[in-house]
Amino acid sequence: MAARDVDVAVIGGGIVGVATAMAVLEKSRVSLTIVEKEARLAAHQTGHNSGVIHSGLYYKPGSLKARNCTAGRELLLRFCAEHGIPAERCGKVVVATGPEQLPALAELRRRGEANGLAGLRSLAAEEIREFEPHAAGVAGLFVPQTGIVDYARVTEAYAEVVRQRGGDVLLSAPVRAIVRDGAGTVLVTDAGEVRCRFLVNCAGLHSDRIARLAGVDPGVLIVPFRGEYYELTPGRRELVRNLIYPVPDPEFPFLGVHFTRMIGGGVEAGPNAVLALKREGYTRSSFLLRDALETAAAPAFWRLARSYWRTGLGEVRRSFSVRAFARALQALVPEITAADLRRAGAGVRAQALDRSGRLLDDFSIVEAARQVHVLNAPSPAATASISIGEAIAVVARANFDLA
User: Fold this and answer.
1) Phi, psi of 311 (to 5 degrees)
2) Can you tell me the distance from the alpha carbon of 291 to that of 288, in angstroms, rounded to the nearest whole number?
3) Is the pLDDT score of 395 beyond 90?
4) Chain centroid to CA 7
5) Structural domains for the chain
6) What is residue 124's three-state secondary structure?
7) pTM > 0.85: yes or no
8) Which DSSP state fits 271?
9) pLDDT at 257 > cutoff 60
10) Are 376 and 205 in contact (CB under 8 A)?
């Protein structure tokens, strides 16, 4: 196969990679190829989430997550309106299920307002039912900016813009090696070589490995966490109007099981957060020796395990028991029973773990010579994708003369 010669190669056909390609091509006259190992775009994290457009409520003011989520949300909604993609700003309710959660609920409101959210409404116990008649708690918070969309469809629309701007997409092209070649870089893939002058790594679940192939120490290990979903049976969907969330544990970068009305219909419940033994392990039986050994061999993982083993056991229990999953959901909607749930899909979150055993909470983007590596882009990365892409495009132009 003949080698492709381009100015910019973007590894990863998820929503962040394709948004980055779109942003680079918006203001730069360059040749660009998206290199995706699967036969389709949005095959992993992007295509396995519940489609929530996040508001920016949870994130530390001034963090990359906060800045990019707030800006990206509005850019995403504008893009959807311009390209005829169904999206809905329906709002959500965060429910405190006990008095011990009230300080954390108040902190969420403070963060939300610091991040520019207007119209937040604190709810007394009886006011929760104005928004969600079947939800229950000691207090709540209504967040009007939250919405829903189909992110796989958004990604395909981004890709169409990329093609219109002269870029292309190379599918079924896993990267096997990355070789420096003078002032450029050669990607050795199953679909042939791609020579580029600037490299962007948006490989998600494999971003740390791609960084190492490119000669960059990422400083993190990607640890995969599987999130399993149930859906409400058709006759019980009326129990949820829009979205119902718990108050999250501030020490753990997962939001807890919740309810999400989906843009295509139906209501999802979940996800939990279970350590996966395969980076693309969407079932409980998924196992890949290389992935499992890489996690087990990392001292940082065992530091994490010592801190969160009780939390982890609870997540595993919910993975195997629909009744345990239902009990967690009953804290938000007491009428839910195990009979109301049926198993739906699962996703795998690429969670970066630093050498100290700390789960990175914020986005992590590392620059190198003529390279940029996105090493931690969990939720709300899909919401923030246009904003993140624009930020990476600025880095590319600043570090390399992309005219």
Assistant:
1) -60, -45
2) 5
3) no
4) 28
5) 4-46+152-219+362-399 (3.50.50.60), 92-144 (no CATH), 222-354 (3.30.9.10)
6) strand
7) yes
8) -
9) yes
10) no
